[in-house]
Amino acid sequence: MPERIRIARLDGDSPHVAILAQWIHDTWGHLHPGRRLDTATALLREECGAGGVPSVFAALHGDTPVGTASLVADDMSDRRDLTPWLASVFVRPGWRGRGIASRLVQRVEDEAQAHGVEHFYLYTPDQQPLYRRLGWRDIEARDYRGETVTIMRRIFSPLS
């Protein structure tokens, strides 16, 4: 029987925020030189909105987080003209390859659509095939803070 994974919206008081912030900081902290873990944790708590932008979701196995994804207004400091963003999609290494990232992305997409978002963005250095498979399209390849990334966009059709 496959593991039961549920996707849950987090509020700022969730005990899971600290571990998700640690994962995010460990994975992408190099893009924010000088940002300490306590600052990253406080910022993630602020992104735990009640609905729409911002929102933070966790993939949970029982009450144990195994992944996360967010819907945020700003995820690339020099592209504030693009908003909102799918951000911080992360699945713990031992849980990868089970469709959890796809479910997290779908949950964020559903959240965006439910709140009237017609298109939104992400950037990734290495997961373009996953996002393309999920309907995202490349719009720009560039260097961001020393890392080569692709900015991608998801547009929702009126019937989707």
Descriptive overview:
It is a single chain. The chain is an alpha+beta fold and 160 residues long. The protein contains four helices and seven strands. It has a four-stranded antiparallel sheet with strand order 1-2-3-4, sandwiched between helices. Strands 5-7-6 form a three-stranded antiparallel sheet. Helix 1 (17-28) packs across helix 2. The protein is globular, with a radius of gyration of 15 Å.
How would you concisely characterize the structure shown here?
With 160 residues, the chain is α+β, with helices and mostly antiparallel strands. It contains 4 helices and 7 strands.
Spatial separation of the terminal alpha carbons:
31 Å
Spatial order of strands in the largest sheet = 1-2-3-4
Helix fraction, binned, reads 25-40%
Number of strands: 7
The string of secondary-structure elements, in order, is EHHEEEHEHEE
Radius of gyration: 15 Å
Low-confidence parts lasting 5 or more residues at pLDDT below 50?
Answer: none
Helix count from the secondary structure assignment: 4
Average pLDDT number: 94
Measured by DSSP, the beta-strand proportion falls in 25-35%
Q: Major sheet, described briefly? A: 4 strands, antiparallel
Q: Tell the overall outline.
A: globular
Helix-strand category: alpha+beta
Strand and helix layout:
Elements: E1 5-9, H1 17-28, H2 37-47, E2 55-61, E3 64-72, E4 85-91, H3 100-114, E5 119-124, H4 128-133, E6 137-144, E7 147-155
Antiparallel strand pairs: 1-2, 2-3, 3-4, 5-7, 6-7
Helix pairs in contact: 1-2
